[in-house]
Amino acid sequence: MSYSADNTGNNGMYQDMVDLHNATARTRSETVPTSPPPVFSAAKMAKMGVFAEKPLTQPAAVPHNTEAKPAAAKKSKDSEKRTEPSNFYDWLFESYKRMEKGDPSGAWQAALKTLEYDTTEPDLFVPLCQQFEPAKRRQLAHSAMQKTPGDSDAYQYLWVEVALSYWYEGNFKEACAEYETILKQKYLDPCLIPMLYNSLSMCYEALGRYKEAEQKYLEIDNRESVIKARARSGDIEGAVELMRKGMALSEPAVSNALEETLLCCLGRPTENIALRIAELLELDSDWPYKDFMLGIMQLVESKGAVGYQRLERFLRVAKSSEHEWAITLRWEIGVATDVLSGYGA
């Protein structure tokens, strides 16, 4: 499905975007391209039956009467019947409830029913789409887009869902095409652009188009991903050269560890390797790439068992995410696998 480059815009729904330069940026190149989660107000969630200050229905007060008539104790047949959802919000919440109960087919049917109603909050379609496998995710997003004004924030959210559905199918070429087209739209929110460039770059990497990935990463000053893309292309020496020419990361310990790890891959560890390991271990947070770097450096530093365990944990976590880390960390998975297979040989 194609869209006109002149009919969309964005007015700021992406206010919750994660800053690509904060401490969590260390994991940005280790995750699948993602759309930022919509921000729902308490009032909006209350309409969905979530965080409501009181139950959606309350029994009427019954005066105390010890001699109530038998007929009053009987429930009518109508009251015993389950009331079918009758509006957008009811069907929306019904879809979530059915999915939670392990009924994806019923959840899908309920999601389709939401399309039969008008809503002033089409952004609620976004998390609804995210419940389903890629083909249904894309189908629902496409249908919701037809009901959503092209110049609305929600339209952009839904379009990103289309791109993401192709990623999860492994159709990186089509995902690239979607992200490229979204980026051509007018009036994109400035906060949205880094996320789109990052996601597009990751698609380029998945296709082996490393030079293009580097260029896009550079446009949003994502230095860590530029360096990694260079190494993943097979030019590890070039990646080290980039760092030595001043392309350092915002976190010195991570920057130093990454350079040392790349040098270890080249068989040229430095005398500072023990210091680099210690600096990285001092960081409180854990993430897969930390295990990868520590594992490589510790094996080289002759702390075999510790390094081996680190790399094993890295591989276990990375491979467990078939459509995410298993794709974005393919080079690192290959390096770790080769190192472990030769360990002790």
Description:
The protein is mostly helical and 345 residues long. The protein has helices at 42-47, 70-73, 77-80, 88-100, 104-114, 125-129, 134-146, 153-169, 172-182, 192-206, 210-219, 223-232, 236-244, 252-265, 273-281, 288-300, 304-320, 325-328, 330-342. Helix 7 packs antiparallel against helix 8 (153-169), helix 12 packs antiparallel against helix 13 (236-244) and helix 13 runs antiparallel to helix 14. It is elongated. The chain starts with 41 loop residues before the first helix and ends with a helix.
Features:
19 helices; single chain; disordered N terminus; 345 residues; mainly alpha
Which helices and strands occur, and which strands form pairs?
Blueprint: H1 42-47, H2 70-73, H3 77-80, H4 88-100, H5 104-114, H6 125-129, H7 134-146, H8 153-169, H9 172-182, H10 192-206, H11 210-219, H12 223-232, H13 236-244, H14 252-265, H15 273-281, H16 288-300, H17 304-320, H18 325-328, H19 330-342
The span between the termini is: 53 Å
Topology as a string of helices (H) and strands (E): HHHHHHHHHHHHHHHHHHH
How many DSSP-defined strands? 0
Silhouette: elongated
Task: Extract low-pLDDT stretches.
Answer: 1-29, 35-69
Radius of gyration: 26 Å
Task: Count the DSSP helices.
Answer: 19
Structural class: mainly alpha
Helix content: 55-70%
Q: What is the average per-residue confidence, as pLDDT, rounded to a whole number?
A: 81
- Proportion in β-strands: under 5%
| Largest sheet geometry | none
